[in-house]
Design a protein that fits this description.
seven-stranded parallel beta sheet, 282 residues, Rossmann fold, binds nicotinamide-adenine-dinucleotide, alpha/beta
Length: 282
Amino acid sequence: MGFAFDVPFSVDLSGRVALVTGGNGGIGGMFCRALAACGATVIVLGRNLARCEAVAREIVEGGGKADAIAADVTDEAAMLRVKEEIERRYGHLNILINAAGGAMRDATVPQDQMADGGERTFFDVPVGAVQGELDLNLRGTWLPCKILTPLLLGQAGACVLNVSSMSALCALTRIPGYSAAKAGVSNFTQWLATYLARDGVRVNALAPGFFATEQNHALQFNPDGTPTPRRQKIIDGTPMRRYGELPELIGAMLFLVSEKASGFVTGITLPVDGGFSAYSGV
Ligand SMILES: NC(=O)c1ccc[n+]([C@@H]2O[C@H](COP(=O)([O-])OP(=O)(O)OC[C@H]3O[C@@H](n4cnc5c(N)ncnc54)[C@H](O)[C@@H]3O)[C@@H](O)[C@H]2O)c1
């Protein structure tokens, strides 16, 4: 029996090699487990080798196939070493998922509008913090695509899946660097999809709406545990009137990496957002 993990439907990924950046994180780790449950050999990539190995070990001990590799997705030399390692261990890749990313606390603007007041404003946010967000989210997607997509050429079910965000469709308040970077991820997804369309590589993205995770806990809850006004605004702006549950992303991921399910789908950014992007707020 293969690795057991709750997936909404199964697709046959046996014989496929999938690399997931940020594979030791919340969404990336969940995707690694779901891919392994569908028979893929999963390479868990993150900066911290021990944390990647822990995910890979869990999959292997559960009867799946997995491997771990440490690299910073923004570092060209490190990603070139990853390419060499994959060539040496597997010879090719079938699926590349770019899930490393996130917003950074130092780059967050403290208020929605300057007129809301406060001592610190957008103009006090350090340039380096915003650059860090642009690097992690945009360079950290673009660079693995540039270096690793050659390993996908000519392979069965070859595809790239990037993780964008709601903030790509319409800038969210307080996180201008992250929003600009994710808009870049969605735009680059379209560009690469077009570029590789006649070479058998599909390129798509997911745009998760609002999911309760460690990363956004401080934006949702005050130190005393009461919900912040921002949390309520998000719920009011989501027609389904709730946050998403992370496993609700798995079906969209499996759909987009399965050529049987989505063989004529390329260049899209698929929202998984409870209707947030469909609703004007009025
Ligand atoms: N959680 C949400 O609600 C949400 C919503 C929209 C989009 N996203 C996006 O989903 C993706 C995954 O987010 P998550 O919630 O699982 O966050 P997470 O922090 O749990 O996972 C991110 C992972 O990326 C890794 N990482 C960070 N910098 C890296 C680097 N330079 N090189 C290699 N790995 C690096 C981290 O170690 C971590 O494992 C991100 O791109 C995030 O922007 C998340």
